[in-house]
């Protein structure tokens, strides 16, 4: 674990010039947040490639599914800013960064499930992100006149403000070649309340909007920055933030012989025991590396 943190720290040392807001060199307000020609010329930063890991070098591994609760203070940098018009130029929420990559076509590996079996088309994704409903007054108008005015049509759309949490899928594994425990992020999914239930005034449940295969999103996330509460002059890009696990999580599922069942499937309606089970799994993963050096 110590070696992992050292590696992450070294990854965060170089900061590309375009990350600077350029506020000290701007001659007009419009130049704030725009990199100078010199910064663009000197920008050679790219996502750090993952090292090749041979299957025979993986001594032990476990897949974990975790929940990143955006109500927790430590995770707020993933949620804000919800309004980019009022934010520092160059800093966006994680959801806006993902949607920017998807809408531009740079992120193409978007799926409906965590196992990446059903790929989503742009139309399918749009349907998941929006909800259109006709009000009672509009239904009455249609019955009498055969048409519905726009004012009686309610349209709802998921934005970064509606994101409640993120689900991430990753693999902890012990690399026998380097003799250390490592983590690899596989997928990430934004989670929000079901729009249909919200519109109906019912108790809405949280649903996963889509799953992104993380390696496909790294290039995009490398170019978007989150606020660094310790040093505003050194914002952290989302690729470094997520790979370095600068977030707090609760494990809700692991790979197991019961079809990867979740914790709440075998610990029912007891939030405290579910949290304790999550912490037990975390301790088991952390202890595995230490146990390798005990004889």
Fill in the keyword field for this structure.
single chain, 11 strands, alpha+beta, two-stranded antiparallel ribbon, seven-stranded antiparallel β-sheet, 11 helices, globular, 22% strand, 295 residues
Summarize the structure in words.
It is built from 11 helices and 11 strands. The chain has 295 residues and is of the alpha+beta class. It has one domain (2-291). β5 and β6 form a beta hairpin. 24% of the residues are buried. Residues 4-20 have low confidence and may be disordered.
Q: What's the total helix number? A: 11
**Whole-angstrom Rg:** 22 Å
How many domains in all? 1
Uncertain stretches? 4-20
Main beta sheet, described? Answer: 7 strands, antiparallel
What number is the mean pLDDT?
A: 85
The N- and C-terminal alpha carbons lie at a distance of 19 Å
Record field, number of beta strands: 11
* Relative helix content: 25-40%
Question: What is the approximate shape?
Answer: globular
**Succession of helices and strands:** HHEHHEHEHEEEHEEHEEHEHH
Strand-residue fraction?
Answer: 15-25%
- Decide which structural class fits the backbone: alpha+beta
